[in-house]
Specification:
Length: 96
């Protein structure tokens, strides 16, 4: 009889996940894969409410499309993602 994931403890799920990774990727590549992720910090639910409160998904997608177009044209709004940082060193990913 197969155990469903609902029946597994968090430790058992981690063990099964590790075994699945190792069986497909080997130990070294599995470790590299895991190093790509971090738990993060803060409260995403509260941040999401702060950033997108009152907006519909369609409005958010429209804003994203506008930003992408402006960014690709070098016209990103001040203080937004994709803003030109001429003369500044690029930020480095701390996970690297």
């Amino acid at each position: 009889m197969m155990t469903t994931s609902i029946d597994l403890t968090p430790a058992e799920i981690r063990k099964a996940g590790w075994e699945a990774l190792v069986s497909q990727l080997g130990v070294a590549k599995s470790l590299r894969f895991l190093l790509e992720y971090e738990r993060g910090q803060g409260n995403y639910t509260e941040l999401r409410k702060e950033l997108f409160g009152g907006q519909t998904v369609d409005q958010i997608l429209e804003d994203m499309t506008k930003e992408r177009i402006m960014s690709s044209a070098g016209l990103a709004p001040e203080g937004r993602a994709g803003e030109s940082q001429a003369g500044k060193e690029p930020e480095r990913d701390s996970a690297v």
